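name: query_chain
kind: protein
chains: 1
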Amino acid sequence: MRPNRFALLAVLCLLVACNRPAPQPENTAATVDPETRIVRYLEERAKAGEPIVVSTLYNDVFKEPEERQVLDRLFNSFSRIPLSIVEFQNSTGRIPTLVELSEQFGFKIDGEMNVVLKIMESDPRVPHFLERDSRTGEIVRIDTSAIRGAPPYGQIMERGIAGWVGRRAPRFSMQSFSGGTLSTADVAGSPYLIYFWFTHCPPCMKTAPLLAALETQYASRGFKIVGANADRILDLPYTDADRAAYVKEHGINFPVGHLTNQMQQAFGSVTLYPTFFFVNRDGVIVKHLSNLQDKATLEAAIQAAIGSSARTSERTP
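structure:
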């Protein structure tokens, strides 16, 4: 009796399959990026009332330079998140969603902001300033008095509440993307805008083309724009090549420099991006805006800066 050819083929295929290496999971530690790996690790361990021991993470768990850079960025965000939430509410009249808050800090991993907030809530050193929906994790209430009563948040908040309009703009100096120096001297005697942003910030991506068009429209009237990029002080993992590509893609036609810690603090420790300071030709701030703005609002602020005279009041920041 001749063997069944199809049966032999079936046996051969089975033997091949049995000797083939078992498929490996796609998301192994070797292939998952450091930020995802750290967020998932913290997600499993962040529990109410049980503070995360940072030294343990550094010394025993995440030892690679790329991992420690991510940890630095996550834990440095703790000092900025409360103020960013307050500033967002002051700017928009509502509490930011977790997605909007993630955009402000360049968090791209699903659930990352929720994990960071859980860690903050478990840390006794961070004031208990918010309440969250137990089901969704969304923030439902913020306690500004708790933030105001905790240094250094209080001093920064008081400065913001007092307002910037009518104050003389702080002097600034930073390294430009082209390698030179970009400073107050470059805009002295002109109406101008200081625009705080970071690479791939979603609201900034919508704002940049508007500003580029408005700068072109109002350049003949002496108006200037200076961009202050916050990538470095936010520890965002973008390179000079990334920033150059971003500038080209979004048509940014005004000078841009690297925001310094000193400049950020001089302008009230900016925590919400984008932030705008419109200054008249006398060096006095005539409009201060935060978060995404439409073209009409930006254009009105430009016109106010151009049309403002030396009679504008001047208060020292």
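note: The two ends are 101 Å apart (CA to CA).
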